[in-house]
Amino acid sequence: MHGSRRWFAALAIALGALALLPIAAIVGRGLAPGAGDTWAHLAATVLPRYVGNTLALVVLVGAGVAIGGTAAGWLVARRRFPGSAIFAWALLLPLAMPSYVMAYAYTDFLQYAGPVQTGLREAFGWSRGDYWFPDVRSLEGAAVMFIFTLYPYVFLLARTAFLERPEALVEAARTLGLDRRRAFWRVELPLARPAVAGGIALALMETLADYGTVAYFAVDTFTTGVYRAWFSLGDRTAAAQLATALLVFVVGAVALERASRGAARSHGGARGKQALRRAPPRLAGARAAAAAMLCAIPVAIGFVLPVLLLLRLVAGEAEVALTPRFFVWAWNSLRVSLVAALLAVVLAALVAYAVRLAPGLYTRSASRVLTLGYAVPGTVLAVGVLLPLGAADNWLALALRDASGHGPGLLLTGTTFALIYAYLVRYFAVAWNGIEPGFARITPAMDAAARSLGAGAWGTLWRVHRPLLTRSAAAALLLTFVDVMKELPATLVLRPFNFDTLATQTYLFAKDERLAEAALPSLAIVAVGLVPIMVLARIGVRGREASPRTPDANPGQSARNPAGGRAVSA
Length: 570
Fold this sequence. Notes:
Blueprint: H1 2-30, H2 35-44, H3 47-78, H4 84-90, H5 99-110, H6 115-124, H7 139-164, H8 167-175, H9 180-209, H10 212-216, H11 222-232, H12 236-261, H13 269-274, H14 285-316, H15 318-321, H16 324-357, H17 361-371, H18 378-404, H19 416-440, H20 444-452, H21 457-468, H22 470-486, H23 489-494, H24 502-511, H25 515-545, E1 557-559, E2 567-569
Antiparallel strand pairs: 1-2
């Protein structure tokens, strides 16, 4: 048994080292001798523009998702109004819409030759120069795309925080003379602040990691700078230094989230779940209409309208959109996503089991290092993977040429190996967050019972833990699969020659202004992304229905669920 523990611990530590390798390669290349001249050139030319645009996006997106997500979360959790039960899950739908897909849809809709401006010119007899229309392909336009696709992170966490908050606290504030508005600002919002800050941090990390939207809108940020330095200029040192600077922004976003939480702690959450709570008040008249409109706008802009615009493009040129190549891209996306998801779930299970068997400093540190990869932008990760694997490829090529007399080609960076490696580093945290809670629900007594019956470490994992982890592993597999399917920056950089996925072809078509051809792969990505959203919404509805509640003020009424839903007669 002790030998098995050492084997699992060694595996966890080795995987942690592999996850750190890309970051170490970037930092090492950026600090290499002679790199100071490159950094000075960057600071004098492009760096101020990259910093300014990135900071502007962080401020605009952070403010937008904080306001929209918190307001929608509070309304759905704390009030009843027409459609509140539908909005409880519909407000999650924009999570299935990648921001770069949304950018392509709205560009076709709002550009000069699009239906909106064309209709305005025909209706009023205008020509170019007679009117002003906002340019969607701008920094502000990119911020809007991010806000309407990323606000669900804040909405989901804020809604949960408002639902779990004991209503006795608000009632106590009311008895002390606070009206509802002041009770929200002084009691409810401060208690939900940690959840809101966590959602904002997730949205900002996604914003910093994005490449497709900012590249298509010609907004110079660190992600576009890294890509341009590596591929357009061939300057690996500059790319590594820009990637390191982008990592500083990511670390800053995480630190900001920690600081925003401050010393806030939520106590009594479990008691709050068990306590009997009154059904939220029902809005009527203008207030009900305003609440429904406030929740409907982000769903319409962030999901419904982009889907309709993409369907319009496909229907208009179906013979262009649906070609045999589409199925090749779909198959490429399917197989790399499935392989990466399966490997991520298996490795997450092995690391979690290693921490369970040998819960020491090294195994826990390795697990934490592995989960940090999700915060690393795809472009940065691609550069970090190419640096060591490129050197390993060169060494292998020389060694095999000397041994066999002919070169084998690029065995690592010329195949999907590098791509799957990047996926595993980036999305291990997604698989871990599904697997680790499953292990936590298995009592140590079951391990002890298995050992008393003669089962070793492997036997316990296979015969005891594996059946109990089936549902957790399936959920982790699904979420990881969808995240890999939508990933663009690392895939664009690391994919082998003549290997395209739905995400890369969507971007390449849009880059060439072939939006009709980009529409079908975009819709396929959105359709796949809907699956975990529906599962998540269903789990949330079940959780709300299981929440105990007291009768409403009217004894003949009771609420179906706390997040929205019509009252039913007793």
